[in-house]
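step: validate -> pass
step: tokenize input -> pass
step: predict -> running
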Amino acid sequence: MKKLDQFLQDNLNDLRDRGLYNEIDPVEGPNGPVIKISGKELINLSSNNYLGLATNDHLKEIAKHAIDQYGVGAGAVRTINGTMDLHVKLEEKLAEFKGTEAAIAYQSGFNCNMAAISGVMDKNDAILSDELNHASIIDGIRLSKAKVIRYNHSDMDDLRAKAKEAAESGLYNKVMVITDGVFSMDGDLAELPEIVEIAKEFNLITYVDDAHGSGVMGKGAGTVKHFGLSKEIDFQIGTLSKAIGVVGGYVAGSKDLIDWLKVRSRPFLFSTALPPGDTAAITAAVQMIMDSTELHDQLWENGRYLKEGLLKLGFDIGKSETPITPCIIGEEKLTQQFSKRLREEGVYAKSIVFPTVPQGTGRVRNMPMATHTKEMLDQALAVYEKVGKELSIIN
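step: predict -> pass
step: emit ->
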């Protein structure tokens, strides 16, 4: 047997044996509050489509019109002739949305972290990184070749001690602190006010990835706005594919920062620009979030309702401070079995296991949407009760 074939078979079988292999289920139709998989309708609690904008009729019409006017693709990278007036309008709207001087759009949120971190930090610098930061942050740090200094999750004493040591060591030209705004596996928030205080004390660059905060926190404007720190954070990063409902990502900050990223960030320089239909729909979606908190408020109401129901049933939902609602099961195989039985009973809630979360902390992560009805959530809770008791997860 070829080396590659042996490697793949051995390791795939190992993942399956340990309950760590992730099955991918194609969705037959729109990713809304109810989805169809293998011909069966399921209440959907696994989507990042927080506000329901991925299936919004107004945004679909905006995208169709842009395609008719501009075509299906941008045709080039941004620095040649792939920058359309649509991209300029989007970036102006994103800067307004985030309360910064300027913004730059990328093809994905993952690309943002690869671009922005490595565009500014290098081997002569150090980065203080929360130990539960997203994989794209970790990969962006690796690409930068900066010294990575992990601090315990949201432990401000640990951050302060490590920031002091790094700043006073004289080893680094620049020191950056990076954190998610909302931690997507548990739904807790970064301690941004304390992080800003520490950053001021030790002259740190501040970097917040708000992928799960934009559209959700701060009446839609994000976690940084929630804490009133728009003028204190150097880098505001986010995705355009979750609450905003389309695809892509952005960095918002000072005009000098954005000008620098336009000439030094590799995904901007070497990858084709966002398609016209997507760009127009994103701009309209951001405007909708800025114009009204109706969807935001309904999302939070549904999140509270689901949390209360799961707690009443006896599930461990951790310490979430956002609509993200994990049901922490623990053992990986049991977590996979729980998710499978939920699906068989009509609820799609995907299991999350190692390496996405630490071993022994497997969970089903529930993502309520603004477009779920109370009836849908009641049906889901009834299924959770039935399956949870069947598998002795709850009494």
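step: describe -> The two ends are 50 Å apart (CA to CA).
step: cleanup -> pass
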